[in-house]
Each structure stands twice: as C-alpha cells, then as structure tokens.
C-alpha cells in the first residue's frame, strides 16, 4: 500500500516527515558546525596577527598623528615607513587573500548546504507546526515558549521561527493566527538569540508591525485600527480582540484533545485459549470496544526486536503518501515507511507468527508488513484500511482487508494517539503494545466505524508496525463474533 507517489522524483529527500530523518539532519548540522568552528578558529588567528600589525603601526604613529612632516623628519621613521610600504603591504595584502585552511572548511560547508532541506520540506515542517497548534488548540504564545499540552519543552521559538510561521499562515489566509505569530515575532525580536538570523535577512521591525496590522485588517475593520495597534504593544499572551467566531472542533480534533469519554470498563484478562501457544505464554488482553471489535494487547513485542525494526537508513525508507488510502486528499505526504513483503526475513516471520497466535487467524502472505516513522507534527488523516470491494471489483479475488494489526514500537510522550472518531475511541501508543481490529462485518461488508486517524505527534519519535490481512484467507478460521 504505502508506495511512493509516481509524480515524486525518487531522489527527493524530505526530512520533516520522519523523526529518524530529522535526526540525520541534526547530524549534518553538527558536522556543519564543526567546520564552522574550525573556520572561525583560523579566522580568529588571522585576526590576531593582523591586530598585532595594526597596533604596532598605529602606536608608533600616535604622537605624530597630526604632523606627518615631523614624523618623516626622523630618518628611522622614514626608513621604517619606506620598508613597510615596500615589503610589508604587499605581503599583508596577499596574507589577507590567502585562504589557507579556510578554503577546506568552506568547501566542506558548501557540501552540507547541498544537503539542506528544500522548499517542500520547509512547507511540510510549517504544516506540522500549524497542525500541532490547531489540533491541540494551543495558545500561540505558549507554543512559542515551549509550553504544549501542559508540558515544558525547554526551548523556545526565535523571531525568524515565528515570522516563518506567520508568513505561512498569512499565505493560507489564516489572518488572525498569522497576526498572533507576527506579534510574537515582534515581541522576541530583540532577544540576543535572534541577532544572527536577523543580520542574515534583516526583516525590519516596521515590516513585522506592518504585516501584523495588515493581517488584522484582512478580517477586521478600519474602525478598530487603534485597538489593533494597541494589541501590538501588548504582551503576546493577551488575547486579540474583535475576533471572528471560532470553528467548532472536528471529531478528530476532539479526540486528539483528549475529549472522548474514557474507554468503558470492558474485559481485561489473560488470554490463554486462542491458540495452543497461548497456554504457555498467556496474553494481557484488553477489550477496547465491541462495536467495532478492537482489542489491545500488552507486551507483545520485545525491545530487542523493536531495536532491529527501527534500525533503518534513509535509503531503506520511502515517503508514504495518501494516494493509496481512502483519504480525501489526492496526494499527501504522511511519513517515512519501510514495507517488507513475504520475504521480510526471520524477524518478520516471527512477528507474523505471533500475530497468528494472538488472533487465531491464518496470517497469509498476501499483504505486507509496514514500519512507519512519523515526522514533525506527523499526522495521518481519517481513512479506512478496507477498500470496499464493491467499489473495487478488481479485488474480488483476494477479498478486502479483514483486519489490521497495529504494533506500537515506540512511546509517544505527547500527542500521536490513534483515533476512531465515529466510535469515539482514542488509543495512546505504548511501546510493546498492539492494537487489533476487524475492518469488516461478519458478512464481509465494510464497517465504517473502523475509520481511523492519527493525531499529530507533538513530542517523540512515533514508530508503528502495521499489517493488514485479507478476508478470504480467513474463511475457515475467523470466528463469527456476535
Ligand atoms: O499509526 C497509526 O496509529 C495507524 C497507522 C494506520 O492507520 C495505517 O497504516 O493504516
Ligand atoms: Fe490505517
């Protein structure tokens, strides 16, 4: 399923759609900084040498600064001057031009620049931040200070960070939110941390002010202009005034915000009967829902197995897009994914056997095992894992995807729940647990209550392992649930 979209050039590297790839970008930054450090050390040495030269000359000159005649009347001075001009200046000039060690570092640094994220990637990262803010209904000023969903992240956003987000929201006609971010950019503008970026592309304070006012006027009225101007000098935590009506949250947003009712107290037990295997290794089984049928199993995958599953390089993972899912978007980049087919190796076979033991089903060979790593604000829109063979008669042979196994192979400290909006269920990933559900009714018809989505990840590297299984292989194994 999660195949690369044909229109996307295969070589395109996108970092923001997986935390694994972002860690690689951080490594690149570390190397870049090492070269920058070397460059600066050499530069500092050069500057010291030059300063010594300058000091010698100016000190010697000091008492005679205003009287050149007097200075050169002294033969030692005259001789010194002549010799310096003849010998030292040309040397000095070529010393200035001499790149020496610098050139090596500069060349290395420009190689890293070739590996920096492209415009698509930047757009994805902005989209991720946008999602984190609006899905969780965060206050922009809290988010900028690293306060999200009651957690302190221990870092804050710089003025250029806030500006980038403001410009992005403005372009998407989200004017009130853009205004909040312009105000934040304005308020942190003079913090020392921002000096460098500001030197590099120097947005003017007046420019930010102007954008704030324009954003406010886009959905506001000139009559309120004086109020808007007041807002600009207020603490950025103060709410804006004259705001339009808020959109009410979607079911998914409600679920992500933790507003679904707690799971009803269903059965929680040790299952030792599904298959003979269970008698020796009983399972911690939690019934999450009866309609649709969903179970959660605890401690079903070992840390050593997880370490092996998540040890992947960039080349091994591809960009998973929505084009093969039942989502409204034609193509949307979701996450980085590695799919192994039947020959996934020993570990895949072990895991598939374990799924068979847990579910009592025959796991077949027709669908594949996918390992997914989500990125910055990584989100998976509402979709179904079934395709509905009534709409896809070409699949009549193999049948629809009867069930899904979703192994959580990392903890997600903040955000990243799996949501079943119609069933009002939210499941927070827990490393080592697995969710198991039936996508189809007993008669093989799709069950729309199994449509699901993944909330944006806020903190953590969200990894899952997914396998779906086809219906007809199970004809004689699957019990008819009532
Ligand atoms: O990551 C998740 O929680 C769900 C993944 C999923 O829905 C899928 O791969 O079809
Ligand atoms: Fe799914």
Keywords for this structure?
482 residues, alpha+beta, Jelly Rolls, 4-stranded antiparallel β-sheet, 17 strands, disordered N terminus, binds 2-oxoglutaric acid, binds fe (ii) ion, metal-binding, endoplasmic reticulum, procollagen-proline 4-dioxygenase, vitamin c, iron ion binding
Give the C-level CATH assignment of the largest domain. Answer: Mainly Beta
Strand order of the largest sheet: 3-4-5-14-10-17-8-7-6
Structural class by helix and strand composition: alpha+beta
**DSSP E strands, number:** 17
What is the 3D shape? elongated
Tell me the CATH topology of the largest domain: Jelly Rolls
Quote the average pLDDT: 86
> How large is the radius of gyration?
31 Å
**Distinct small-molecule ligands in the complex:** 2-oxoglutaric acid, fe (ii) ion
The CATH architecture of the largest domain is Sandwich
pLDDT under 50 segments (min length 5)? Answer: 1-5
Largest sheet properties: 9 strands, antiparallel
Can you count the helices? 15
As for the number of domains, it is 3
Helix content: 40-55%
Q: Output the CATH homologous superfamily of the largest domain.
A: q2cbj1_9rhob like domain
Gap between N and C termini: 30 Å
Proportion of residues in β-strands: 15-25%
Task: Give an overview of the whole structure.
With 482 residues, the chain is of the alpha+beta class. The chain folds into three domains: 19-113, no CATH class; 140-233, no CATH class; 256-474, Jelly Rolls (Sandwich). The chain has helices spanning 19-61, 68-73, 75-97, 102-113, 119-135, 140-144, 159-171, 175-187, 195-201, 205-219, 225-233, 251-256, 276-280, 303-310, 346-359, and strands spanning 147-148, 151-152, 268-271, 283-289, 294-298, 318-321, 333-340, 369-373, 380-383, 401-408, 414-415, 418-420, 425-427, 434-438, 452-454, 457-459, 463-470. Helix 1 runs antiparallel to helix 4 (102-113), helix 7 runs antiparallel to helix 8 and helix 8 (175-187) packs antiparallel against helix 10 (205-219). The chain is elongated, with a radius of gyration of 31 Å. 32% of the residues are buried. Its cofactor is L-ascorbate. It comes from Drosophila yakuba. One of its GO terms (cellular component) is endoplasmic reticulum lumen. Keywords: Dioxygenase, Endoplasmic reticulum, Glycoprotein, Iron, Metal-binding, Oxidoreductase, Signal, Vitamin C.
């Amino acid at each position: 399923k999660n195949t690369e979209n044909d229109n996307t050039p295969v070589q395109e590297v996108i970092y923001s759609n997986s935390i694994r790839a972002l860690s690689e970008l951080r490594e690149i930054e570390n190397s870049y900084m090492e070269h920058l450090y070397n460059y600066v050390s050499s530069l500092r040495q050069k500057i010291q040498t030059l300063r010594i030269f300058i000091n010698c000359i100016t000190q010697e000159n000091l008492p005679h600064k205003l009287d050149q005649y007097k200075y050169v009347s002294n033969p030692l001075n005259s001789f010194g001057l002549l010799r310096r001009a003849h010998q030292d200046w040309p040397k000095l000039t070529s010393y200035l031009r001499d790149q020496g060690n610098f050139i090596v570092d500069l060349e290395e640094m420009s190689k890293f620049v070739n590996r920096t994220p492209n415009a698509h990637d930047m757009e994805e990262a902005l989209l991720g931040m946008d999602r984190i803010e609006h899905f969780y209904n965060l206050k922009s000023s809290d988010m900028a200070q690293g306060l999200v969903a009651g957690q302190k992240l221990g870092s804050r956003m710089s003025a250029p960070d806030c500006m980038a987000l403001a410009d992005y929201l403005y372009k998407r006609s989200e004017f009130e939110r853009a205004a909040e971010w312009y105000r934040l950019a304005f308020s942190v503008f003079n913090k020392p941390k921002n000096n460098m970026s500001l030197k590099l592309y120097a947005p003017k304070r007046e420019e930010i002010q102007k954008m704030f006012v324009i954003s406010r006027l886009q959905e506001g009225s000139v009559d309120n202009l004086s109020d808007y101007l007041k807002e600009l000098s207020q603490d950025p935590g103060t709410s804006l005034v004259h705001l339009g009506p808020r959109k009410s949250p979607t079911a998914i947003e409600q679920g992500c915000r933790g507003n679904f009712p707690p799971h009803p107290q269903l059965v929680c037990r040790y299952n030792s009967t599904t298959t003979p295997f269970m008698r020796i290794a009983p399972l911690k089984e939690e019934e999450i829902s009866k309609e649709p049928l969903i179970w959660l199993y605890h401690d079903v995958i070992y840390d050593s197995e997880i370490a092996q599953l998540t040890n992947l390089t960039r080349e091994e993972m591809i960009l998973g897009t929505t084009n093969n899912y039942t989502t409204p978007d034609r193509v949307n980049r979701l996450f980085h994914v590695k799919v192994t087919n039947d020959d996934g190796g020993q570990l895949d076979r072990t895991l598939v056997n374990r799924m068979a033991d847990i579910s009592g089903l025959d796991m077949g060979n027709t669908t594949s095992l996918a390992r997914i790593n989500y990125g910055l604000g990584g989100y998976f829109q509402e979709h179904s894992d079934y395709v509905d063979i009534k709409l896809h008669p070409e699949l009549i042979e193999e049948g629809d995807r009867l069930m899904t196994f979703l192994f959580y192979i990392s903890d997600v400290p903040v955000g990243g729940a799996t949501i079943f909006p119609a069933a009002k269920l939210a499941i927070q990933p827990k490393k080592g647990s697995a969710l198991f559900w039936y996508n189809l009714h007993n008669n093989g018809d799709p069950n729309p209550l199994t449509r699901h989505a993944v909330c944006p990840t806020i903190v953590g590297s969200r990894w899952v392992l997914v396998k779906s299984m086809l219906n007809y292989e199970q004809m004689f194994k699957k019990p008819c649930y009532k």
